[in-house]
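Section 3.1: Structural characterization of target chains.
Under the original work plan, the team committed to producing a structural model for every single-chain target entering the pipeline before any wet-lab resources were allocated. The record below documents one such target. The sequence was received from the expression subgroup and is listed exactly as submitted; it comprises 276 residues.
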Amino acid sequence: MLDIFNWIFNTIFNILFLPFKNIDPVWGMLVSSIVTGIVMLFIFKATSDQVGIKKAKNLLKGHFLAIRLYRDDISIMFDTMKNILLANLLYMKKSVRPMLFLLVPVVIILLQLGSRYEFRPFNVGETIVVSLRLDDSSGNLDLDKVQLSLPEGLRTDMPPVRVKQLREVNWRIKAKEAGIYDLSFKYEGQVVNKEIHVMDSLVPVASSVARDNVTTTLMNPGEASLPGSSIASMVSVTYPRRDFEVLGFNLHWLVAFFIFSLIAAFSCKGLFGVEV
């Protein structure tokens, strides 16, 4: 079910990000953040009590004005502080419903952006570390039987490292050519595949695929999870972190997204008549 969910939204976002695939990633982030901020405004307006929010904001403004006017009267000051607290609670109550409606689309957007901006594809010549973790309830595992088949364009850099305590085998490989490759892991007749991207493009990459792991599947929407019958519990690839620079500052993509989207939302709220 989660794989279908991921496939649907991954396809939609692949189409939306097609114009930004081969240009500076900051442009895709900028446009997606601005569009998100504006769309969130409309959702907030449609699902909130705009009259009630405006009333709560006016009450707050009136109470803050009272603090300035009656700052020498202690009793009035305490009453005003109490009224500010009540008005804040009223404002928060009016904001809960639209925030719940915003939660699902925001999470979907963040998962899709994360698959594109948290990591980047490998460059030609970079070292790739791949880990396969096996899961056998019987405990009778022979890690020496695990084999990795590499397509043309990839080569092993050293013999595999086997860690019996973790039921894990690690390989270090290098990319000779750009492309999208399928790694094939073989163990006693079973085959497990993992996709690797080697290119200079803005595409979704999956650092891990797992079996029966909801969190890993949601955090890596660019690739299907391992089948339930697979003897492997997880396959991981050490993709490099994406460097994200905005106006000369190195920012995490999540920080940049919220900055851009909030600026867009608050800049346009007056234009669209939205009380926030």
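Residues 74-117 form the longest helix (44 residues).
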